[in-house]
Amino acid sequence: MEGPSAARGWLRDSGGDAESDRDIKTHFRVCRFIMETECDSNSGVKLGMRSVPVATACVLYHRFFQRVSVHAYEPYLVAMSCVYLAGKVEEQHTRTRDIINVSHRYFNSGSAPLECDKEFWDLRDSVVQCELLILRQLNFQVSFEHPHKYLLHYLLSVKSLVNRHGWSRTPVAETSWALLRDCYHGAMCIRHIPQHIAIATLHLALNSYGVELPVGEKEWWKVLCVGVTKAHIDAVVSDLLQLYDMEAKCL
C-alpha cells in the first residue's frame, strides 16, 4: 500500500531492499526530521514539543516499521502521524495544521504556510488515517517507558559523588542528555531497556571527560542500576557509535 498521493508532492521517498543500509539511513533521516520539527530555526516556526513526546514519536515510528516494510508506506507521513499521536499520548496536544505547516517548511525552506485548500485537507486526512493505521499495527499499545527519568536519577546520584568544582568544569549532564537524544535516531532505542540506555549514556559521558568516581566494593553503575553488566553497557555504546557512523554517511 502506497502512502496517500496528497503527501507525495513534497515528502521525500525511499527505496532499496528491506533491512538494507539505505533503509537504515532513511530511518535515521526521518527521526532527525521528527526532532528538528520540534523547533525549526530556519522558519522561526516550532511545535515546542518536550523531549519525552519527541522520544515517544520516535519509538512509535520505530515500532511501526518493525512490523511493516519501509517501502509499503511513506516514512515521512508516518513520522508526521507519530508526532500527532505522541502529542496525545504524552498530553501535549499538537494541531495537525501546525504539524503540516512546520513539516512543509522543513522541506520547502522559506515558503509560505499551505493554504487551506484541497491539498491541505487531503494531507490532513492522510495524517489522521495514518494515525489509525499506526494504532492498529501497534495493537493500541502506545505508552512507553523512556530512559529520561532514570538518567535524571543517575545524574543526581553521580553528582553527589563528584567534587562540586570538578563537576561544574565538565558538561557531563549536558553530554548525557545529548547522547540519550541521539539514541532515538535508530532502533537501538527499542532494542535496549530504558535503564541500560540511561546508565550507558552516563557512563560514556563520564569516560569522555575523564571524570573518575570514588572506588567502592561495586562499580558505580552496578550500585545505581541493579542487574546491569558491562556487556549491557558496551552493547548500548556500540549501537550508539554505529549511529554516529550512520550520521556521517547521511551528510
Automatic annotation (TrEMBL):
Residues 10-20 have a biased composition (Basic and acidic residues). CDD domains: CYCLIN_CCNM_CCNQ_rpt1, CYCLIN_CCNM_CCNQ_rpt2. Keywords: Cyclin. SMART domains: CYCLIN. The keyword Chaperone does not apply. The keyword Transmembrane helix does not apply. Residues 28-136 form the Cyclin-like domain. May be an activating cyclin for the cyclin-associated kinase CDK10. This is Cyclin-Q. It comes from Gasterosteus aculeatus aculeatus.
